[in-house]
Amino acid sequence: MNIIPQDAPVAVAPGGTGYGLTARIHTLPRPDKALLNLLFGAALLALVLGLAGGLLTALARAGALPLYSDDAYRLLTLHGVSVFFYWLYLIQAALLLALAAAENGRGLALRPAAWAGVALMLAGFAVSEWISATGTPLLYDGSPELAVDDPRSVGVFALGYLLLAAGLTASATSGIATLLQPRRRGETAEFGAVGFALFAWAGFLIVSAIAAANAFLPGLLWSLGAGPFPADHGTEWHILFHNLHYLPLMATVLVWYVLTEHLTGVTSIHGARLSKIIFAAYLVFVPPTSLYHMFLEPTLSEGVRVVGSLLSLFVSVPTLAAFAIIVSSLEASARAHGATGFLGWMRGLPWSNPAMANMGWAAVNMMAGLTFAFVLIQGDLAPMLSDTFFVPGYFHLFAVGVLTQTFLAALMVMLPALNGGSLWRPALLARMPALVTAGLLLFAAAGIAAGTMGVPRRVFDIGYGGMAPTAWPVLMAVVGIGASLFAAALSVSVYGVVRTLLSGRKVAAADLPAVAWRVERSRIGTAPAWTGPASIAALVAVMYVFTIAAFQLIQSLPIVAIGGGHGH
Amino acid sequence: MPDSRHFTTRRGFIAGLGFGAVSLYGAWAAYGAAPLPFGHTPSTESAPESAPDSQAHDHGGSAAGSHDGHPAAATAESFRLDHEAFLRTYGQADGSVDPHAVSHTGGHSHGTANGTHADGSHGGHIAAAEPVTVYLMAQKFAYSPDLLRLKAGQAYRFRMMADDITHGASIQLGMASRIVRLRPNIVSEQTVTFTKPGEYLVYCTVYCGQAHDAMQGRIVVV
Fold first, then answer.
1. CATH superfamily of A25-231
2. In a domain, B7, yes or no
3. Dihedral (Cα; A415, A418, A421, A424), 10-degree rounding
């Protein structure tokens, strides 16, 4: 396999690629730096809490850690609240503000709103963690029906998320004002691709906050005696939940755009307009695809179930298109520099840079996660897979493998620029994503197999008095091993980022590898770029294999069942 | 000026790749799990060759799967009454419920409270094509009944409801499970035929509180 010639231009970050992301962050005003450091730190604290809770949960489910029922579900609540709400939302708010401020070049606009947002989100973080640790276990969706006799837990739990939602709104408002500032000053006529994506992302964060208020305000009012019992919480939650886990995916793609330019100098060879359309497509394709979360609902009609399945086929359109844009831009640029070999051009990427390694392995995790996501979204397979461990089995590939690794990659680039230090032990950090992925694949393989066999998603003791299949505890033990492996490797990455955040200027700045592949447009695209299409063709082929296997399995079961059923 | 770019680096081709996963529709259609443009009605997840009843593959959009094609229209209160009558009529001395046997208390009925035929014949034949109605109530942290005795090859119309909060009433079937989610006071109906004898675990797959892990029942199929 050939690789890119050694005479290809090589640059060093920061600043060497010409884009100047790190240079712009480095020159942000001091109050903005303080705000971003606080927000990044809080996000990392949420990640640490969530990671610890997740590892203990996995060990308990593997039978290695005996826990009383309430303690176990309280731990699961802490894990979900910390990771799915506070890590993912705090880091999104932080990245939005950092990238918006860098895009502006003059720091944050509406700074008081940004500070108010941080204060509200941190207050929500404290409230949510406290009630999760001490109240009735409500899991991360805070279902009020689990605590009909304990309105205090329902109310305080809802208050935490409402504070988070209010903080998100304030932060996103500051982000939008920051992005609009250059246009209002007449410095630019229109958004670039990244500016447009940031603008759309900020808008979606506000939508997400509204969805959270819609889901949790009724619970707070009920707990105060000011409203009826929130009987529709399940439906409102589904709306929020769908938004909750696709919004970070859009943020991930945006970060890939930014980091690709920073690490290689390559921007989209297809023009800013296509990128803008793709980012706007999240608004078109994501909301109508939410029905698959509700396939088991007894009130969902068969017609809606079928339509929901069909719409779900489109859920990956923007993400796959963005992936194809990035990969084809990289490959075409590499080939314009003389790279040869079907996949050989990839060896020229700066893999020893931890940000590149995290981003590259995130793409691998995305492909694996998408494969199984598309088994789950088929309405006729939901009665075999929904509410089982299949769900956490596959979505950790996204939550950890894709989202968390990508956001950590962004931190590995931004934190040294923000504080003037350098990344802690980059050679070690560059090795971690492969280990994280290995652990995740083990976790996912065993978890998906366990879920397919019927292991429930949220049951700690799966013995059922000896009636459960003997394979269940074996598979869950493997889940525990996989979780331990990826948690250990991820902990090293998180530690490195935290050390970088805390060390600041005490460590001398050091350059990390990057390449400079940007070439003039006339030299782009004369050679074929097959990696993107081949990746997606392989993805579809694997999707076919697992979907057909699932259909074969469900048809082989000793039962014939008709109807999801509903009445009144 | 003609575009000298290779087609793999052109904008339209790249945008089209985003729709790659939509091609999975082919697999879905092949298994009858997606509507086809030429009018094929999607089947359920049941195996065509093992279905005892032709209606199993032609639910025609009926969510309930009732043999008459109409969704169940019971209220929660009428469900509770029917459920009580079912237990009273078919309850056995060992605590199980057998819709094919007379109650140990001497009660006997040729139909359930809602008038659906649940043959109470004394060991006589039951027409396999006619579903027998059985009731299952889920509540913290048990099922009622928690032991059902059924027959292989016989279709059963499972009428189910959660009494207090959301529960699962999933059935473990060996290599996989049939996952069922029940919402409080919403009657769910599925027509189920076990094709092999065995003892099947019924378990809760929706977290419902402190003793959620212990919530289980059994279906014994002979």
1. Cytochrome c oxidase-like, subunit I domain (1.20.210.10)
2. no
3. 0
pLDDT: is A307 or A224 the higher one?
A: A224
* Residue ranges making up the domain that contains B42: 15-57
Tell me, yes or no, if B210 comes closer than 8 A to chain A by beta carbon: yes
Tens place of pLDDT for every residue, chain B, 222 residues? 456 788 998 999 999 999 999 999 999 999 988 877 654 444 444 333 333 333 333 333 333 333 333 344 569 999 999 999 999 999 999 999 999 987 666 554 444 434 444 443 433 344 456 899 999 999 999 999 999 999 999 999 999 999 999 999 999 999 999 999 999 999 999 999 999 999 999 999 999 999 999 999 999 999
What's the domain count of chain B? 2
In CATH, the architecture of A1-18+286-555 is: Up-down Bundle (1.20)
Q: Do B9 and A460 touch (CB under 8 A)?
A: no
Cβ contact (<8 Å) for B11 and A271? yes
The reply to whether B129 and B26 lie within a common domain is no
Best mutation target among A304, A380, A562 (most B Cβ atoms within 10 Å) is: A562
Judged by CB atoms closer than 8 Å, whether chains meet at B20 and A536 is answered as yes
Type of residue found at A531: T
Sorting pLDDT into bands at 50, 70 and 90, what band is A11?
Answer: very low
SS3 for A222-278 is HHCCCCCCCCCHHHHHHHHHHHHHHHHHHHHHHHHHHHHHHHHCCCCCCCHHHHHHH
Question: How far is Cα B189 from Cα B192, in angstroms, rounded to an integer?
Answer: 10
What is the arithmetic mean of pLDDT over A101-122? 96
- Judge contact between A271 and A196, C-beta under 8 A: no
**Angstroms from B197 CA to nearest CA on chain A:** 9
Would the pLDDT of A90 be above 60?
yes
Residue of B nearest to A323 (CA): B18
Contact A124, A167 (CB under 8 A): yes
- pTM of the full predicted structure? 0.90
pLDDT at A30: 95
Low-confidence winner among A56-65, A279-288, A515-524, B106-115 (lowest mean pLDDT): B106-115
**Given the DSSP bridges, would you call strands B216-221 and B155-162 parallel, antiparallel or unpaired?**
unpaired
Q: What does the domain layout of chain A look like in residue ranges?
A: 1-18+286-555, 25-231
B147 and chain A in contact, CB less than 8 A: no
Q: Are residues B143 and B191 in the same domain?
A: yes
As a whole number of angstroms, the distance between CA B130 and CA B146 comes to 24
Same domain, B36 and B118: no
Q: Please provide the average confidence, as pLDDT, over all residues in chain B.
A: 79
- Tokens describing residue A485: 């492996």
Q: Does one domain contain both B184 and B85?
A: yes
The answer to whether residue B103 sits within a structural domain is yes
Contacts of B125 (CB under 8 A, 6+ apart): none
Residue numbers in A near B153 (CB within 8 A): none
The reply to whether residue A560 touches residue B50, judged by beta carbons under 8 angstroms, is yes
Could you give the maximum distance between any two Cα atoms of chain B, in Å?
93
